[in-house]
Amino acid sequence: MEQKLVDDCFYVEQKKYGLWQSHHPDGKGIITSLTEEECVRATRYYLKMKQEGAINENVVTYSGTVDGKL
Question: H helices of 1-70, where?
Answer without folding.
Answer: 36-51
